[in-house]
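Possible regression after last week's pipeline update?

I re-ran a chain I had predicted before the update to compare outputs. Posting the input and the new output here so someone can diff against the archived version. Not blocking, just want to make sure nothing changed silently.
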Amino acid sequence: MNPSYLELLEGGELHEVALILFERMADCDLCPRKCGANRLGGEIGYCGASSDLEVSSFTPHFGEERPLVGSGGSGTIFFTHCPLKCCFCQNYDISILGSGERIGTRACADMMLRLQEMGCHNINLVTPTHYAPQIVSAVEIAANNGLRIPLVWNCGGYEGLESIKALDGIVDIYMPDIKFYSSKASNEYLGVDDYFERCSESVVEMHRQVGDLHIEEGLAQRGLLIRHLVMPGHREDSEGIIDFVSSLSKDSYLNIMDQYRPQYKSFEHPEIDRTPYPDEVEHVRQYARKVGLQRGF
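New output (post-update):
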């Protein structure tokens, strides 16, 4: 199966999408915060990013979901900064403190091509939302120079609906991490009270574009792969998220993750300043089975 972006490349539409997304950075509304920063004019957005693309690292990753990893690994590119400010972020040095290096779109394209040469099965774009224009531009350059593996949009779920619509036909695999269902929890821990509202509408659009996860010979080719990190003391949030995922499709691929560890400013919130108990994780998995889900966990 050929990656989606090749068809848009041939028609010249990939270049057009990049230009449209770049224009939106002049009064930035790429993420739901719509902070209005003139990033093209040198201003810094709420996310911490300017118009310059910043990358922390790129490498084959073998700790992702099995359909992404295969034998050659998932080709991850870790982008600096983030539209969310999760108090428990495990990559806070990158996403919040801004550890990374400024590079051009051509250098990003070279990273993609290098990862393909190293045998990676996909290009895994980690926290890409605020760099959508630069990424699409880099994909155009890389595809013109032989990039032929799927693109994975590995995001925190807080996506602008119009931005996701603009990526139709470019992204092969969407991988949102749906964190919280209640506005109270998302406001407390993420700094936004409309998290699930924005996340759910974007995930619906993702599913419309790519459908359920399609796997060939053990490798993901196209579709929606959803993550949910089980948080201590938040069973109702997990249940609400699972009900939503189930309403999308009973064939949804849902990775229920148990690796939460208190990081960054978790100590300021005693209720999440611990790892989840085994019975909390098992409850979430059993609930997913109860509503008819059976893939990914």
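Follow-up from reviewer: compared with the archived run. The radius of gyration is 18 Å. Marking as no regression found.
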